Amino acid sequence: MTEKDYFQVGAKLIGLYCLVLMLPVLLGVLSTIIVIAGNTSDPLGVQYIPLFASPILLVALGVYLLKSRAFAHRISFEGIVGMSNSKLPQYFTVGTKLYGVFLIVGTIPSFLTLLANFLFVMNQRVRYADIVTAATGLKTNFVPDLAMIIFGIFLLFKGEIVTLWAFPSGKE
Amino acid sequence: MSRKDLFILGSKWIGVYCLALAIGELFKAFPLTFTYVPRLRQSVPLFTLSNWLSFIGPVGYLTIGTYLISGGSYIRDFWFHGDDENSTKNSKDFLDVGIKLYGLYLIAVSIPGCIWLVANALIALSAPPYLSIEDELEGLRSYLPSVLASLGLGMCCLVWSGRVAGLAFRRTETGVP
Question: By the 8 A CB rule, do B7 and B79 touch?
């Protein structure tokens, strides 16, 4: 098995995890949908977009990771110059890239929920909305999750940098 | 792949996990600290110091992550004394290394919490007498058992991994299905 094969198996398992994760997220959003459906006087605000996008995005990502063969081929596994013949660096790169995918997928629901909370308060037409968001931390609560997603993207596309750090010039 | 190789690979992945934790914790601590900096300048120095302690988590995870990714040679040499270069023969060997790595993970994740706990306890105990520290001490007392349990369990996993793996695969080895 090549490193791409290992990556493909891992990505498909994460796809399955994505679909499973969608269920609790969907159940969490369902109550909001019922409230909105029963209350026609309240217009559908921009704050609901991230909330509803969460399960849809998880299904889309899950199906894509589970079905697509192209994903593993799109992610490049650059040969790392100066590595020994040992398979350890290659295994490490595959694991790091898969952890990147897992980090992105796993952080999306909480990130979108916190973003929806922030937008909800900001869209209330009250005078002190910005003060409330700052005081309750709603303004910055989603930042750690955003940083984690960015770190996940970095690991997915540039995991080789961490491999070069972990295995400099073939030392194990 | 030898048991040592598996342990190296796993410990480096735990290092990457610690780096991700460090980034998350850093972005939690930054906004909080800098929102309250103007107010903290006017408060008791003890509170200022206590607030800066929120950076212990990210710094701790960053240090552990960096150490594990860039070698972790001390840990590796401590648990594998050169007699583990043989390739993993059976599931028992895999389980043995897996338990060791789980122990390492538990310890790596608990250490920043442990340092935070000790630092906060020292600050609370050195507080001026006019400040009430009962709530603070109560919080620390309730957090202490979980941190100590994680550290203890991690140490147990590292020390007795062979025995646990042996227990799990005893039947297979004796030929009983």
Answer: yes
